[in-house]
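Bumping with the actual sequence this time:
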Amino acid sequence: QVQLVESGGGLVQAGGSLRLSCAASGRSSYRMGWFRQAPGKEREFVAAISKGGATTYYADSVKGRFAISRDNDKNTVYLQMNSLKPEDTAVYYCAAGTIVPSPGLERSYEYWGQGTQVTVSS
């Protein structure tokens, strides 16, 4: 069992930056992902990272603006978000999975955090 706690959300103006963190309890040998859910919309994939951090995956909507990374010594995964847009407004969730055949699919992940709100004003 692993617990995930997100932090770093907040209110930012369009064009600004935020860095989200996700602290995991227990071992860090999980593939990690970030998803988001905007009001009235389905939860969608944002980014994922392999256990060692060498491989990353991004949704087309955030490529070139967001960067996922991890520090396994700290059991923490990060999402650096730059050039934020109002359409990035959502609750952002961290997820962890032991075997993640499809990083972009929710069902690939066993554990989920509670989410952190990101609001981008225009």
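The tokens above came from a reply further down the thread. The chain has a mean pLDDT of 95.
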